[in-house]
Amino acid sequence: MGKTYYCDYCDRSFKDEVDARKKHLSSMQHITNRASHYNIFKDPETILKEESCKTPCKRYMTVGDCAFGSGCRFSHYTPPMIWELQQLAAMKNSKVLAAQPKDGWPNSEDIIKEYFENVIDSSGTEDFNCLVWNTPSKLIDYPYLPPSLQPVTSERIMDCNFSKWG
């Protein structure tokens, strides 16, 4: 039996030929499935901009179901959902503005902490720093461990002397 092509979006497989792939990739079902997959990852601002231009779907608002589903040209977002999107977009914009440095250059210590540690901020009162990975106990007790295998912390990165690496 020959090779088969599997489409993740459509959950379908067929014979791997150029014409069959072209036909499938240009089909309306594949295009719809692909678009609905990527709609999951849209930014709240983008969704808000798209949905605020649309009028509410009367059938979806009254019955709770629409025959067109995600392909409907009317909005399926309720006013509380729109309000929540507005709050998410405002929160994201405020975080972006607060994170921008005053002199144009980011703080290197903040970048290192963000990259190597999982910081959980609960309303700004407590900071919990958790390492992203666990170091095996045999490596911790080993006396002559090369620097490239030693556990990574923000302090060790700042005090690193690369000339010792050999």
UniProtKB/TrEMBL annotation:
**All residue ranges annotated as the C3H1-type domain in the record:** 51-79
**Keywords assigned:** Metal-binding, Zinc, Zinc-finger
Zinc fingers (C3H1-type), renumbered ranges: 51-79
Q: Name one GO molecular function term.
A: nucleic acid binding
Alphabetized InterPro entries for the sequence: Matrin/U1-like-C_Znf_C2H2, U1-CZ_Znf_C2H2, Znf_C2H2_sf, Znf_CCCH, Znf_CCCH_sf
What Pfam families does the record tag this protein with?
zf-U1
Q: Which GO terms describe its cellular component?
A: U12-type spliceosomal complex
**SMART domains per the UniProt record, alphabetical:** ZnF_U1
Taking the record's annotation, the residue ranges forming a coiled coil are none
Q: Which protein are we looking at?
A: Zinc finger matrin-type protein 5
